[in-house]
Design a protein that fits this description.
By secondary structure, the chain is an alpha/beta fold. The protein has 11 helices and 9 strands. It has 2 domains: 1-29 and 76-116 and 168-248, Rossmann fold (3-Layer(aba) Sandwich), CATH 3.40.50; 30-70 and 119-161, SIR2/SIRT2 'Small Domain' (2-Layer Sandwich).
Length: 248
């Protein structure tokens, strides 16, 4: 990994990191559009359609098994750990993530603005009752595809993930935009930057005079705007950790 990007992170006054599915594929969680992604199954692309969830929640709970409910034992990977270490060293103002796996939080990053929501909490669509991820796991009893239902009203629990057709979580999105507006460097890691409105967040940094860096396996629509362009996430994480060791 050339040192230019890492130099820029260490010299920036207000850097932040925008992450996508690529950072979690290093942990064994499948991405969506990659060669081995979930969208190889054409039906999987519909798993986050809100109207389909309301009509047939079993479709979501079956298709999302590996992505959401099978990830509890997965540990943060090299990028998650590197970003948490950068924060502890004073070189990160926060993380904006499109991911719903909670791995940044488990690694120790804070603040983390999960702009596509999180399955950490589920709400009953009938009465609004809230359950934690662990409580939903207990209700489902480890049965793949099982639909968790509310004992009070019989309604279906839906994770607080943003489905297509729903608004992004206001608090997380507003926090992410404020972070982007105040930053002098946005480092995009493992995102195709094709899912909107979240993909507009790095552009806000550019519009406010900051710089953009992208580390992603494939091309993105913003590559031509980037001051730094790399394609190896593992090399990035290793380079960050090596620099932090040198800095003591």
């Amino acid at each position: 990994m050339p040192s230019g990007l890492i130099d820029a992170i260490f010299s920036a006054e207000a850097p932040y990191f925008f992450t996508g599915a690529g950072v979690s594929t290093l942990c064994g969680i499948p991405d969506f559009r990659g060669p081995n992604g979930l969208y190889r199954d054409p039906d999987a692309a519909r798993m986050f359609e809100i109207e389909l969830f309301r009509a047939d929640p079993s479709f979501f709970y079956s298709k999302a098994e590996s992505l959401v409910y099978g990830s509890g034992g997965i540990r943060p990977g090299p990028v998650h750990r590197a970003l948490a270490a950068l924060e502890r060293a004073g070189h990160s103002r926060g993380v904006v993530t499109q991911n719903i796996d909670g791995l940044h939080e488990r690694a120790g990053s804070s603040p983390v603005f999960a702009v596509h929501g999180s399955p950490a909490v589920h709400h009953c669509l009938g009465c609004g009752d809230a359950k934690t991820f662990d409580e939903i796991a207990a209700i489902r009893g480890g049965v793949p595809g099982a639909v968790p239902r509310c004992a009070r009203c019989g309604g279906v629990y839906k994770p607080d993930i943003t489905f297509f057709g729903e608004m992004l979580p206001e608090e997380a999105f507003n926090g992410a935009m404020a972070l982007a507006d105040a930053a002098d460097l946005c480092v995009v890691l493992g995102s195709s930057l094709t899912v909107h409105p979240a993909a507009q967040i790095p552009l806000r940094t550019l519009r406010h005079g900051g710089r953009l860096a992208i580390v992603n396996r494939d091309e993105t629509p913003y590559d031509g705007m980037a001051a730094f362009l790399e394609d190896d996430l593992k090399a990035f994480a290793d380079g960050v950790m090596a620099r932090l060791e040198q800095a003591g």
